[in-house]
Amino acid sequence: VALAFITIFFNAALIHAANERMSGGDPGLGSAIRGAMLRVHRILPWAIVSATVSVILRTIEERAGWLGRLVAGIIGVAWSLVTFLVIPVLVIEDVGVGQAVKRSGAMFKKTWGENMAAQVGFGLLGFLLMIPGLALAGFGFSQGGSTGAILIAAGVAWVLIVVLVLSALNGIFQTALYRYASGMGTTAFPDAVMASAFAPKGGRGGRGFTQMPRGIAG
Q1: Is residue 92 included in any domain, yes or no?
Q2: DSSP state of 200
Q3: Are 39 and 21 in contact (CB under 8 A)?
Q4: Quick check: 47 pLDDT over 50?
Q5: Distance between CA atoms of 190 and 196, rounded to whole angstroms?
Q6: 10 Å Cβ neighbour count for 51?
Q7: Residue 215 pLDDT grade (very low, low, confident, very high; cuts 50, 70, 90)
Q8: Residue 7 covered by a domain
């Protein structure tokens, strides 16, 4: 629960800062942390729920063999998709966990294409970007000695940087997607950019994600 709380807390701080920027403000580290602190009473229950779900899914995987792994995998994917926007809802709307899950689920129905594309895209991008770091660490392990230790440390640092960067990008995307689904808009991006990024795509009436709006750091 402690690890889940820390992770969610800093995600909430990032989302608070991204939302402030998209609202035309000029957020800083201090304002981001303060924003998350104001939602601790929402973040802690969500951390408990998230940790509990993770434990339940892990238990199913370990005790039910391949069928358990399959079921847990399906449930895990569905849970991550439906709850993708829970943290933005908690931070921006200041509602309870139950209401946040309902709101996130309702928004998922509207943005399922962007939601799925983002999760698959970020996962694939993360895997590809981690390969050099993992390869470097593996090579260092095979070399041994002080040189190997340096290479391992460099590989681990590479992976950590990739994780942090992707986490930040994911938080920014969550905020933009939440604002789009809520009809809030953003002053950080031109309306035309937001429209093209989240516009319905052709083909069987589906939706799709084209590109991440640019300008958040501007």
Answers
A1: yes
A2: B
A3: no
A4: yes
A5: 10
A6: 16
A7: very low
A8: yes
Answer yes or no: are the C-beta atoms of 100 and 89 closer than 8 Å.
Answer: yes
pTM of whole model > 0.85? Answer: no
| Domain annotation covers residue 166 | yes
Residue 95, phi-psi category: left (phi > 0), alpha (psi -120 to 50), beta (remainder) = beta
Which CA distances in Å does 123 have to 30, 37, 101, 202? 30, 29, 22, 25
Q: Say if residue 190's pLDDT is above 60.
A: no
Q: Using CB atoms within 10 Å of the CB of residue 154, give its burial: 0 to 12 exposed, 13 to 18 middle, 19+ buried.
A: middle
Q: How many CB atoms lie within 10 A of CB 176?
A: 25
Total domains present in the chain: 1
pLDDT tens sequence across 59-118: 998 888 888 889 899 999 899 889 999 999 999 999 999 999 999 988 888 777 766 777
3-state secondary structure 2-59: HHHHHHHHHHHHHHHHHHHHHCCCCCCHHHHHHHHHCCHHHHHHHHHHHHHHHHHHHH
Q: Which amino acid is at 16?
A: H
Cβ-based neighbours of 200, under 8 Å, separated by 6 or more: 206, 207, 208
Asked if residues 118 and 170 have their Cβ atoms less than 8 Å apart, the reply is: yes
Domain that holds residue 121: 2-197
